[in-house]
Amino acid sequence: MEIITTLEAVKARCKELKKQGKTIALVPTMGYLHEGHLSLIGKARELADIVVVSRFVNPTQFAPNEDLDAYPNDPNHDRNVTEKAGTDILFEPLASAMYAEDHGTWVEVPELAKVLCGVTRPIHFRGVCTVVTKLFNLIHPDFACFGEKDYQQLTIIRRMVRDLNVDVEIVGCPLVREEDGLAMSSRNAYLTKEERALVPHIRKGLLLLAEKAKQGETSAKNLQNFFAEYIKENIPAARIDYCSMVDKDNLESLETLKDKAVIAVAVYVGKARLLDNILISK
Length: 282
Ligand code: AMP
Prior knowledge:
The chain is of the alpha/beta class. The protein has helices spanning 7-19, 35-47, 75-84, 95-98, 110-113, 117-120, 124-139, 151-163, 193-198, 200-214, 220-234, and strands at residues 2-4, 24-29, 50-55, 89-91, 143-147, 169-173, 239-246, 260-269, 272-281. The protein binds adenosine monophosphate (AMP). Adenosine monophosphate binds at residues 29-30, 36-37, 39-40, 146-147, 149-150, 173, 175-176, 183-186.
């Protein structure tokens, strides 16, 4: 596995590989890799000749009060597991190289970025879209893999690529969970032992909502209330950021379940803000 740290080198290497007729699949990450990330690398491996993984904690997607400085980091672990998973190139740029001091160009999908996570994280998706565009421009991947764990992010990236005619196929990959159902996330490292024992209830709550929907409950309000009650009972110290029923393609808020919908949640537990989602149907 090649480890490349400069923008010039990754650009030149990917250009050369494309000249040789190789296809490239990109997996953008912020590091502290777990099985969820590795499943994306596995998918990328199936899709293309060359797998590029980027490992970059993107400062522009964090607000000043968020966890940029505390974000977990283990470069050696990441290098080992990416190599074992069949990565060809690990790209680890410096923030100072990615962003000029007077950087002032942004890519935004405001309609989709103002709901769900965008309410509490108003600049987050602008940072994500901008860094992903920069990675696309450096690497020119044929495929780029994103996890359904970050459902809003995946939807926004798809829309950005459609709207800007970016020549890349966005591949959504299933959410990978711990055995007890907790969605894998680098931020799970923030949980204390006691919190960790309780957080699988987020998934359990969502499964109960799916069951309620199957039994005929169609009101988003009722489902929301049910989730709030369930979390209050089972993770008393948790605070729900949102629990929303949305259209699976355009994230529009739905009051009534018609056919299928996604229920997306963000829940604060201790220092962590945990995301999860479920596709429900009648
Ligand atoms: P992150 O390093 O958290 O920015 O995530 C990098 C990529 O991995 C994103 O496309 C995430 O959606 C994806 N990802 C993170 N956790 C999971 C998971 N548990 N299952 C599937 N994909 C994931």
